[in-house]
Design brief:
This is UBC core domain-containing protein. Residues 1-100 form the UBC core domain. It comes from Gossypium trilobum. Pfam families: UQ_con. With 100 residues, the chain is mainly alpha-helical. The chain has a single domain (2-98), classed as Ubiquitin Conjugating Enzyme (Roll), CATH 3.10.110. The chain is 33% helix and 8% strand. The protein has helices at 2-13, 70-73, 81-93, 95-98; strands at 31-34, 45-48. A two-stranded antiparallel ribbon has the order 1-2. The chain starts with a helix and ends with a helix.
Length: 100
């Protein structure tokens, strides 16, 4: 079941997330989502390979810090990769990240 869920999420995520109305419009960010054997019970780890300036991202490593990103801090089994990417998009558009 875990493998099928990951495949379905991958297929949806490959299409892209976003509507192009954020301050990041026109930019492409590369990130890595890593799901260990405990996914979906535990959240994936998220790391930006592209440089990005956000309050929840460690500026040296590119890692999204779970304590600073609510969805990871309060992870529930029902959450999906799409939920995670959508929430990251909202975080990118948040006023406190627009001024960085």
């Amino acid at each position: 079941p875990r493998n099928f869920r990951l495949l379905e999420e991958l297929e949806r995520g490959e299409k892209g997330i976003g509507d192009g109305t954020t301050v990041h419009e026109g930019r492409i960010y590369q990130l890595k989502l890593f799901c260990d054997k405990d996914y979906p019970e535990k959240p994936p780890s998220v790391r930006f390979h592209s440089r990005i300036n956000m309050t929840c991202v460690n500026h040296e490593t590119g890692v999204v810090e779970p304590k600073k990103f609510g969805l990871l801090a309060n992870w529930q089994r029902e959450y999906t990769m799409e939920d995670l990417l959508t929430q990251l998009k909202k975080e990118m558009a948040a006023p406190h990240n627009r001024k960085l």
